[in-house]
Hints:
By secondary structure, this protein is α/β, with parallel strands linked by helices.
Amino acid sequence: MIQLQVLNYILSSGDSSFITVNNLSSKHFSEYQNEFLFIKSHIDRYGNAPDMATFVAAFPDFEVLAVSESPSYLLDELFKDYRTRNMAETFTKVRKLLLEGRTDEAARVYSAGADALSQDVAITAVDLFRDTTRYDDYVDRTQNLDKYYISTGFRELDKAIGGIDMQEELGVIMARTNLGKSWISLKMATSAAASGLKVGLYSGEMTERKVGYRMDTLLGHIQNGSLMHGNIGIQNEYLKYIKELPTKYSGSLNVLTPAMAGGHVGVGTLKAFIEKYDLDILFIDQLSLLDDDRKGKTLPDRMSDIIIDLKKLQVLKKMPIIAVSQQNRTKNEDNSIDTTQIAGSDDVGKYATWVIGISRDKKDETILNLEVVKARDGGVGSKLTYCVDLGKGVFTYIPQEGDEANPQMSDTEFMSRYNRKAPEEPYEEPFR
Protein backbone atom coordinates (compact mmCIF):
# COMPACT_ATOMS: atom_id res chain seq x y z
CA MET A 1 0.00 0.00 0.00
CA ILE A 2 2.81 2.45 0.84
CA GLN A 3 4.32 2.13 -2.66
CA LEU A 4 0.93 3.00 -4.17
CA GLN A 5 0.52 5.96 -1.81
CA VAL A 6 3.94 7.38 -2.73
CA LEU A 7 3.29 7.13 -6.47
CA ASN A 8 -0.08 8.84 -6.04
CA TYR A 9 1.55 11.60 -3.98
CA ILE A 10 4.17 12.26 -6.68
CA LEU A 11 1.58 12.29 -9.46
CA SER A 12 -0.98 14.46 -7.67
CA SER A 13 1.55 16.95 -6.25
CA GLY A 14 3.94 17.01 -9.18
CA ASP A 15 6.78 16.84 -6.66
CA SER A 16 9.51 15.24 -8.78
CA SER A 17 12.14 16.23 -6.18
CA PHE A 18 10.67 13.57 -3.89
CA ILE A 19 12.37 11.03 -6.18
CA THR A 20 15.62 12.86 -6.94
CA VAL A 21 16.37 14.32 -3.52
CA ASN A 22 15.71 11.04 -1.71
CA ASN A 23 17.58 8.82 -4.19
CA LEU A 24 14.54 6.67 -4.91
CA SER A 25 14.88 3.93 -7.52
CA SER A 26 12.92 0.96 -8.85
CA LYS A 27 14.22 -1.16 -5.94
CA HIS A 28 11.86 0.78 -3.67
CA PHE A 29 8.84 -0.11 -5.82
CA SER A 30 8.85 -3.88 -6.13
CA GLU A 31 5.10 -3.97 -6.92
CA TYR A 32 5.12 -1.00 -9.31
CA GLN A 33 8.48 -1.06 -11.06
CA ASN A 34 7.12 -0.25 -14.55
CA GLU A 35 5.03 2.59 -13.16
CA PHE A 36 7.99 4.06 -11.33
CA LEU A 37 10.28 3.78 -14.35
CA PHE A 38 7.66 5.58 -16.48
CA ILE A 39 7.56 8.49 -14.00
CA LYS A 40 11.38 8.60 -13.69
CA SER A 41 11.80 8.58 -17.49
CA HIS A 42 9.32 11.47 -17.82
CA ILE A 43 11.26 13.48 -15.20
CA ASP A 44 14.60 12.79 -16.90
CA ARG A 45 13.25 13.79 -20.31
CA TYR A 46 10.94 16.72 -19.48
CA GLY A 47 12.13 17.91 -16.08
CA ASN A 48 8.85 17.19 -14.26
CA ALA A 49 6.58 14.32 -13.22
CA PRO A 50 3.72 13.42 -15.59
CA ASP A 51 0.26 14.63 -14.66
CA MET A 52 -2.33 12.10 -13.58
CA ALA A 53 -4.11 12.03 -16.97
CA THR A 54 -0.91 11.22 -18.85
CA PHE A 55 0.02 8.51 -16.38
CA VAL A 56 -3.40 6.82 -16.27
CA ALA A 57 -3.47 6.76 -20.07
CA ALA A 58 -0.35 4.60 -19.92
CA PHE A 59 -1.51 2.55 -16.92
CA PRO A 60 -5.33 2.37 -17.05
CA ASP A 61 -5.53 -0.20 -14.20
CA PHE A 62 -3.58 2.02 -11.76
CA GLU A 63 -5.53 2.74 -8.57
CA VAL A 64 -5.82 6.48 -8.00
CA LEU A 65 -5.87 7.45 -4.32
CA ALA A 66 -6.20 10.70 -2.38
CA VAL A 67 -3.08 10.96 -0.19
CA SER A 68 -3.16 13.17 2.90
CA GLU A 69 -0.06 11.86 4.70
CA SER A 70 3.00 14.11 4.98
CA PRO A 71 5.99 13.56 2.66
CA SER A 72 8.21 12.65 5.63
CA TYR A 73 5.78 9.95 6.75
CA LEU A 74 5.54 8.52 3.23
CA LEU A 75 9.34 8.44 2.91
CA ASP A 76 9.86 6.76 6.29
CA GLU A 77 7.27 4.10 5.50
CA LEU A 78 8.68 3.50 2.02
CA PHE A 79 12.18 2.95 3.41
CA LYS A 80 10.79 0.70 6.13
CA ASP A 81 8.99 -1.37 3.48
CA TYR A 82 12.21 -1.69 1.45
CA ARG A 83 14.31 -2.66 4.47
CA THR A 84 11.83 -5.35 5.49
CA ARG A 85 11.79 -6.87 2.00
CA ASN A 86 15.57 -6.63 1.63
CA MET A 87 16.23 -8.27 4.99
CA ALA A 88 13.83 -11.12 4.22
CA GLU A 89 15.50 -11.75 0.85
CA THR A 90 18.99 -11.55 2.36
CA PHE A 91 18.21 -13.96 5.20
CA THR A 92 16.64 -16.42 2.76
CA LYS A 93 19.79 -16.42 0.61
CA VAL A 94 22.10 -16.64 3.63
CA ARG A 95 20.12 -19.56 5.09
CA LYS A 96 20.31 -21.45 1.79
CA LEU A 97 24.08 -20.90 1.50
CA LEU A 98 24.69 -21.96 5.10
CA LEU A 99 22.71 -25.16 4.61
CA GLU A 100 24.90 -25.85 1.58
CA GLY A 101 28.04 -25.25 3.67
CA ARG A 102 29.07 -22.15 1.68
CA THR A 103 29.86 -20.03 4.74
CA ASP A 104 32.22 -17.54 3.09
CA GLU A 105 29.68 -16.76 0.37
CA ALA A 106 26.94 -16.47 2.99
CA ALA A 107 29.04 -13.88 4.87
CA ARG A 108 29.54 -11.87 1.67
CA VAL A 109 25.81 -11.92 0.88
CA TYR A 110 24.97 -10.79 4.42
CA SER A 111 27.58 -7.99 4.28
CA ALA A 112 26.31 -6.79 0.89
CA GLY A 113 22.74 -6.73 2.21
CA ALA A 114 23.78 -4.72 5.26
CA ASP A 115 25.71 -2.24 3.08
CA ALA A 116 22.69 -1.76 0.83
CA LEU A 117 20.52 -0.88 3.82
CA SER A 118 23.08 1.55 5.22
CA GLN A 119 23.07 3.48 1.94
CA ASP A 120 19.30 3.84 1.94
CA VAL A 121 19.19 7.28 3.55
CA ALA A 122 17.03 10.27 2.73
CA ILE A 123 18.85 13.49 1.85
CA THR A 124 17.97 16.57 3.86
CA ALA A 125 19.56 20.00 3.77
CA VAL A 126 19.36 23.21 5.76
CA ASP A 127 18.96 26.69 4.29
CA LEU A 128 21.35 28.79 6.38
CA PHE A 129 19.70 32.03 5.29
CA ARG A 130 16.38 31.00 6.82
CA ASP A 131 17.31 28.52 9.54
CA THR A 132 18.77 30.75 12.25
CA THR A 133 18.62 28.28 15.15
CA ARG A 134 22.40 28.55 15.37
CA TYR A 135 21.87 31.90 17.10
CA ASP A 136 20.02 30.08 19.91
CA ASP A 137 22.93 27.64 20.03
CA TYR A 138 25.36 30.57 20.30
CA VAL A 139 23.40 32.10 23.19
CA ASP A 140 23.40 28.74 24.99
CA ARG A 141 27.16 28.50 24.51
CA THR A 142 27.67 31.90 26.15
CA GLN A 143 25.88 30.57 29.24
CA ASN A 144 26.59 26.81 29.27
CA LEU A 145 29.79 26.25 27.31
CA ASP A 146 30.69 23.21 29.43
CA LYS A 147 27.92 21.33 27.60
CA TYR A 148 29.85 21.77 24.34
CA TYR A 149 33.52 21.49 25.34
CA ILE A 150 35.51 19.61 27.97
CA SER A 151 39.08 19.99 29.09
CA THR A 152 41.89 17.95 27.54
CA GLY A 153 43.45 17.69 30.99
CA PHE A 154 46.17 20.15 29.92
CA ARG A 155 45.29 23.73 30.77
CA GLU A 156 47.62 25.27 28.21
CA LEU A 157 46.39 22.96 25.43
CA ASP A 158 42.80 23.93 26.24
CA LYS A 159 43.74 27.59 25.85
CA ALA A 160 45.36 26.85 22.48
CA ILE A 161 42.71 24.67 20.76
CA GLY A 162 39.62 25.35 22.86
CA GLY A 163 39.33 21.92 24.50
CA ILE A 164 37.49 18.84 23.22
CA ASP A 165 34.32 19.47 21.23
CA MET A 166 31.62 17.27 22.77
CA GLN A 167 29.78 16.71 19.49
CA GLU A 168 32.18 17.04 16.56
CA GLU A 169 35.66 15.90 17.63
CA LEU A 170 37.83 13.18 16.10
CA GLY A 171 41.21 13.90 17.67
CA VAL A 172 44.49 12.10 17.02
CA ILE A 173 47.53 11.93 19.32
CA MET A 174 50.64 11.07 17.29
CA ALA A 175 54.13 10.05 18.38
CA ARG A 176 56.86 7.53 17.81
CA THR A 177 57.23 4.52 20.11
CA ASN A 178 57.89 5.10 23.83
CA LEU A 179 57.43 8.87 23.82
CA GLY A 180 54.39 8.85 26.10
CA LYS A 181 51.38 9.01 23.77
CA SER A 182 49.46 6.40 25.80
CA TRP A 183 50.12 8.43 28.95
CA ILE A 184 48.88 11.62 27.28
CA SER A 185 45.73 9.85 26.05
CA LEU A 186 45.07 8.34 29.45
CA LYS A 187 45.60 11.69 31.18
CA MET A 188 42.90 13.15 28.90
CA ALA A 189 40.60 10.18 29.57
CA THR A 190 41.19 10.36 33.33
CA SER A 191 40.50 14.10 33.37
CA ALA A 192 37.22 13.57 31.49
CA ALA A 193 36.14 10.78 33.86
CA ALA A 194 37.11 12.83 36.92
CA SER A 195 34.95 15.69 35.60
CA GLY A 196 31.87 13.44 35.72
CA LEU A 197 31.73 11.91 32.21
CA LYS A 198 31.24 8.28 31.24
CA VAL A 199 34.50 7.54 29.46
CA GLY A 200 35.37 4.53 27.33
CA LEU A 201 38.94 3.42 26.59
CA TYR A 202 39.88 0.71 24.11
CA SER A 203 43.28 -0.59 25.15
CA GLY A 204 44.63 -2.69 22.32
CA GLU A 205 47.88 -3.55 24.09
CA MET A 206 47.75 -2.99 27.86
CA THR A 207 45.56 -5.02 30.19
CA GLU A 208 42.87 -3.31 32.21
CA ARG A 209 45.03 -3.79 35.32
CA LYS A 210 48.00 -1.93 33.86
CA VAL A 211 45.70 0.84 32.63
CA GLY A 212 44.25 1.00 36.14
CA TYR A 213 47.67 1.41 37.74
CA ARG A 214 48.49 4.24 35.34
CA MET A 215 45.17 5.92 36.13
CA ASP A 216 45.95 5.63 39.85
CA THR A 217 49.33 7.28 39.24
CA LEU A 218 47.73 10.14 37.32
CA LEU A 219 44.95 10.73 39.85
CA GLY A 220 46.71 9.84 43.12
CA HIS A 221 50.34 10.57 42.11
CA ILE A 222 51.28 7.17 43.51
CA GLN A 223 54.60 5.89 42.18
CA ASN A 224 53.73 3.74 39.15
CA GLY A 225 56.75 1.47 39.57
CA SER A 226 55.67 0.68 43.14
CA LEU A 227 52.20 -0.27 41.91
CA MET A 228 53.53 -2.43 39.09
CA HIS A 229 56.12 -4.25 41.21
CA GLY A 230 54.12 -4.58 44.44
CA ASN A 231 56.09 -2.31 46.80
CA ILE A 232 54.68 -3.02 50.29
CA GLY A 233 55.83 0.41 51.47
CA ILE A 234 52.94 2.20 49.73
CA GLN A 235 50.15 -0.18 50.80
CA ASN A 236 48.51 2.15 53.33
CA GLU A 237 48.63 5.11 50.94
CA TYR A 238 47.23 3.02 48.11
CA LEU A 239 44.45 1.51 50.24
CA LYS A 240 43.31 4.97 51.35
CA TYR A 241 43.21 6.12 47.72
CA ILE A 242 41.30 3.01 46.56
CA LYS A 243 38.65 3.37 49.26
CA GLU A 244 38.02 7.02 48.37
CA LEU A 245 38.02 6.53 44.59
CA PRO A 246 34.40 5.40 43.98
CA THR A 247 32.91 8.31 45.94
CA LYS A 248 35.45 10.99 45.11
CA TYR A 249 34.65 11.11 41.37
CA SER A 250 31.20 10.92 39.81
CA GLY A 251 32.32 9.76 36.36
CA SER A 252 33.55 6.38 35.14
CA LEU A 253 36.43 4.98 33.08
CA ASN A 254 35.37 1.80 31.29
CA VAL A 255 38.20 -0.20 29.72
CA LEU A 256 37.77 -2.63 26.82
CA THR A 257 40.58 -4.98 25.73
CA PRO A 258 40.74 -7.46 22.83
CA ALA A 259 40.48 -10.35 25.28
CA MET A 260 37.12 -9.02 26.49
CA ALA A 261 35.75 -9.03 22.92
CA GLY A 262 36.93 -12.44 21.77
CA GLY A 263 40.09 -11.07 20.17
CA HIS A 264 38.42 -9.04 17.41
CA VAL A 265 37.78 -5.33 17.96
CA GLY A 266 36.71 -3.24 15.01
CA VAL A 267 34.63 -0.08 14.76
CA GLY A 268 31.47 -2.20 14.99
CA THR A 269 32.63 -3.50 18.38
CA LEU A 270 33.39 0.05 19.51
CA LYS A 271 29.86 1.08 18.52
CA ALA A 272 28.45 -1.71 20.72
CA PHE A 273 30.81 -0.60 23.52
CA ILE A 274 29.50 2.98 23.30
CA GLU A 275 25.88 1.85 23.34
CA LYS A 276 26.20 -0.70 26.14
CA TYR A 277 27.87 1.73 28.55
CA ASP A 278 26.15 4.91 27.25
CA LEU A 279 29.55 6.56 26.85
CA ASP A 280 30.08 10.33 26.59
CA ILE A 281 33.56 10.09 25.03
CA LEU A 282 35.73 7.30 23.60
CA PHE A 283 39.54 6.96 23.61
CA ILE A 284 41.38 4.45 21.41
CA ASP A 285 44.88 3.20 22.23
CA GLN A 286 45.73 2.70 19.42
CA LEU A 287 44.51 2.82 15.77
CA SER A 288 46.94 0.17 14.51
CA LEU A 289 45.54 -2.30 17.05
CA LEU A 290 41.99 -2.05 15.69
CA ASP A 291 40.66 -4.61 13.19
CA ASP A 292 39.24 -3.45 9.88
CA ASP A 293 35.63 -4.64 9.70
CA ARG A 294 35.81 -4.22 5.91
CA LYS A 295 38.98 -6.32 5.71
CA GLY A 296 41.12 -4.11 3.48
CA LYS A 297 44.02 -5.94 1.83
CA THR A 298 46.84 -3.46 2.51
CA LEU A 299 47.79 -1.46 5.61
CA PRO A 300 46.84 1.89 4.00
CA ASP A 301 43.49 0.40 2.95
CA ARG A 302 42.83 -0.93 6.44
CA MET A 303 43.78 2.32 8.17
CA SER A 304 41.69 4.30 5.69
CA ASP A 305 38.68 2.03 6.33
CA ILE A 306 39.11 2.34 10.10
CA ILE A 307 39.39 6.15 10.25
CA ILE A 308 36.48 6.64 7.83
CA ASP A 309 34.32 4.25 9.85
CA LEU A 310 35.37 6.04 13.05
CA LYS A 311 34.38 9.38 11.56
CA LYS A 312 30.99 7.96 10.58
CA LEU A 313 30.60 6.59 14.12
CA GLN A 314 31.56 9.95 15.63
CA VAL A 315 29.01 11.76 13.46
CA LEU A 316 26.31 9.16 14.15
CA LYS A 317 26.78 9.25 17.92
CA LYS A 318 27.57 13.00 18.11
CA MET A 319 30.32 12.34 20.64
CA PRO A 320 34.09 12.91 20.71
CA ILE A 321 36.51 10.14 19.78
CA ILE A 322 40.22 10.54 20.55
CA ALA A 323 42.69 8.04 19.06
CA VAL A 324 46.39 7.34 19.50
CA SER A 325 48.43 6.75 16.35
CA GLN A 326 52.01 5.82 15.57
CA GLN A 327 54.24 8.36 13.83
CA ASN A 328 56.22 7.11 10.85
CA ARG A 329 59.96 7.54 10.36
CA THR A 330 59.85 10.32 7.76
CA LYS A 331 61.43 13.64 8.74
CA ASN A 332 61.10 17.23 7.61
CA GLU A 333 64.25 19.26 7.05
CA ASP A 334 63.36 21.59 9.92
CA ASN A 335 62.37 18.63 12.20
CA SER A 336 58.77 19.89 12.30
CA ILE A 337 55.85 17.47 12.60
CA ASP A 338 52.95 17.35 10.17
CA THR A 339 49.99 15.11 9.33
CA THR A 340 51.90 13.26 6.59
CA GLN A 341 53.89 11.59 9.36
CA ILE A 342 50.85 9.75 10.76
CA ALA A 343 51.55 6.07 10.17
CA GLY A 344 49.27 3.97 7.99
CA SER A 345 47.21 6.29 5.82
CA ASP A 346 46.94 9.94 4.82
CA ASP A 347 43.21 9.66 5.54
CA VAL A 348 43.91 9.65 9.30
CA GLY A 349 45.17 13.23 9.15
CA LYS A 350 42.49 14.19 6.64
CA TYR A 351 39.53 13.16 8.81
CA ALA A 352 40.96 14.21 12.18
CA THR A 353 39.63 17.50 13.58
CA TRP A 354 42.88 18.01 15.46
CA VAL A 355 46.24 16.28 15.58
CA ILE A 356 48.62 16.64 18.53
CA GLY A 357 52.23 15.58 17.95
CA ILE A 358 54.52 14.51 20.81
CA SER A 359 58.29 14.83 20.94
CA ARG A 360 61.00 14.61 23.60
CA ASP A 361 64.08 16.73 24.14
CA LYS A 362 67.11 14.74 22.92
CA LYS A 363 69.30 16.08 25.74
CA ASP A 364 66.74 15.76 28.54
CA GLU A 365 64.08 13.05 28.26
CA THR A 366 62.06 14.59 31.10
CA ILE A 367 61.17 17.44 28.72
CA LEU A 368 58.11 16.65 26.59
CA ASN A 369 56.58 18.80 23.85
CA LEU A 370 52.97 18.85 22.69
CA GLU A 371 52.66 20.40 19.24
CA VAL A 372 49.34 21.32 17.61
CA VAL A 373 49.87 19.94 14.09
CA LYS A 374 46.27 20.37 12.94
CA ALA A 375 43.29 22.06 14.59
CA ARG A 376 40.06 22.78 12.76
CA ASP A 377 39.09 25.56 15.15
CA GLY A 378 42.50 27.22 15.45
CA GLY A 379 45.68 26.92 17.46
CA VAL A 380 47.86 25.29 14.79
CA GLY A 381 51.56 25.76 15.51
CA SER A 382 51.19 26.04 19.27
CA LYS A 383 54.03 24.15 20.97
CA LEU A 384 53.71 23.45 24.68
CA THR A 385 56.61 22.23 26.79
CA TYR A 386 56.32 20.18 30.00
CA CYS A 387 58.69 18.65 32.50
CA VAL A 388 57.24 15.18 33.09
CA ASP A 389 57.57 12.64 35.85
CA LEU A 390 55.58 9.69 34.54
CA GLY A 391 56.49 7.71 37.63
CA LYS A 392 54.25 10.05 39.64
CA GLY A 393 51.97 11.20 36.82
CA VAL A 394 53.04 14.85 37.05
CA PHE A 395 53.19 17.26 34.08
CA THR A 396 54.72 20.64 34.92
CA TYR A 397 54.32 23.34 32.29
CA ILE A 398 57.43 25.25 31.19
CA PRO A 399 56.60 28.61 29.56
CA GLN A 400 58.57 29.36 26.40
CA GLU A 401 59.35 32.63 24.67
CA GLY A 402 56.43 33.54 22.40
CA ASP A 403 53.86 31.48 24.32
CA GLU A 404 51.73 34.56 24.81
CA ALA A 405 51.02 34.55 21.05
CA ASN A 406 49.82 30.95 20.97
CA PRO A 407 46.74 30.66 23.21
CA GLN A 408 43.42 31.59 21.65
CA MET A 409 41.82 32.21 25.05
CA SER A 410 42.68 34.57 27.82
CA ASP A 411 43.00 33.26 31.38
CA THR A 412 39.64 34.87 32.23
CA GLU A 413 37.86 33.17 29.34
CA PHE A 414 39.57 29.87 30.17
CA MET A 415 38.44 29.99 33.80
CA SER A 416 34.83 30.69 32.77
CA ARG A 417 34.79 28.05 30.03
CA TYR A 418 35.21 24.83 32.01
CA ASN A 419 32.55 24.69 34.67
CA ARG A 420 32.68 20.94 35.27
CA LYS A 421 34.07 19.56 38.49
CA ALA A 422 37.82 19.21 37.98
CA PRO A 423 40.02 16.52 39.51
CA GLU A 424 40.86 17.38 43.09
CA GLU A 425 44.59 17.74 42.66
CA PRO A 426 46.82 20.80 42.87
CA TYR A 427 47.68 22.40 39.57
CA GLU A 428 51.45 22.29 39.03
CA GLU A 429 52.90 25.77 38.95
CA PRO A 430 54.94 26.42 35.79
CA PHE A 431 58.71 26.74 35.89
CA ARG A 432 59.82 30.36 36.16
